[in-house]
Specification:
The chain has 283 residues and is of the alpha/beta class. It has helices at residues 3-15, 26-38, 43-48, 98-109, 128-136, 140-156, 172-183, 201-204, 224-237, 263-281; strands at 63-67, 70-75, 86-90, 113-117, 165-170, 189-193, 211-216, 241-246. The radius of gyration is 18 Å and the shape is globular.
Length: 283
């Protein structure tokens, strides 16, 4: 294992402990109503999806497909017809679970063909120990193969036929979202939520798409100075980017992460992500 990957694994151990300024009053209520009219999900609605009843998650909107011999979850906008913009969705270190499928559905509600990949070979962890053990088994070449095949699926499938594509991921998936940007030059947007940054400008030069990085200032596994190094490295590499920082811990955008989920930071960052994806994928 090379030093950078080893560092990432060590950081993930820390993540195991917790799992992987909005206006108020009339303006906020109006914003919520406008979102419902557009067909998307507000942060409150997204949070409600994770309030499980009788141990059962809400119904999924998409379906399972296969890419490069691996399972994936495809969610399409309701009544949409090809071509449409596509987004690769990369799971946290837990695996392709209900939470990530909800994210794919959420993106589909925004008008994207969302394809959530499975880099764990069908395994879904339910404890930090399982997540760590499964993450260690991920083969980098195989993971890249799956991501490239999934991207090709978005571009060539008769149901999608994307001409513009992006990628989004969280934690373990945030790191792989960045890596996808480094290995898939056709991408038009890269979004990484608190993934382990690459701080070598030479490595980052292969990224052709603009990057949006979302981080929490209380994230003990990814210190602020590392985020700043990442910001500087992207600038040195000539990669258009924007780094967002919120007063929140790691995994703050995951409603199923008790004690770490921060609704205000999650809502604010999602607004930024929505605008970023729309700008670069809906032209």
């Amino acid at each position: 294992m090379n030093p950078r990957m080893k560092w990432g694994v060590m950081a993930a151990v820390l993540l195991a402990l917790g799992g992987c300024a909005t206006k108020q009053g009339a303006e906020k209520a109006g914003s919520e109503e406008r979102r419902e009219e557009l067909g998307g999900l507000t942060e409150k609605q997204f949070q409600a999806l994770h309030e499980l009843k009788a141990e059962a998650a809400p119904p999924r909107k998409g379906q399972m497909v296969e890419v490069a011999g691996a399972r994936a979850y495809l969610s399409l906008p309701e009544n949409a017809e090809a071509p449409m913009p596509g987004v690769l969705v990369v799971h946290e270190w837990w695996g392709l679970n209900e939470h990530i499928m909800h994210w794919a559905d959420r993106l589909a509600a925004e008008g994207y063909a969302a394809l959530a990949v499975d880099l764990y070979g069908g395994k879904v962890a339910t404890t930090p120990e399982e997540a760590m053990a499964t993450m260690k088994t991920v083969d980098a070449k195989r993971a890249e193969e799956i991501l490239k095949a999934a991207h090709a699926f978005l571009m060539t499938s008769n149901r999608v036929q994307s001409t513009r594509t992006g990628v989004i991921g969280w934690c373990f998936g945030g790191g792989w979202s960045l890596r996808a940007g480094m290995t898939i030059p056709e991408l038009s947007a890269v979004v990484m939520y608190y993934g382990r940054p690459v701080t070598d400008a030479q490595e980052l030069k292969s990224i052709k798409a603009p990057v949006l990085g979302v981080f929490g200032t209380k994230d003990e596994s990814i210190p602020n100075d590392v985020v700043e190094e990442f910001d500087e490295a992207l600038s040195d590499a000539g990669v258009p980017h924007k780094i967002l920082k919120y007063d929140a811990p790691h995994a703050f955008a995951n409603p199923s992460a008790p004690g770490r989920y921060d609704a205000e930071a999650a809502a604010a960052s999602w607004e930024q992500v929505r605008a970023f994806l729309a700008e670069h994928l809906k032209q």
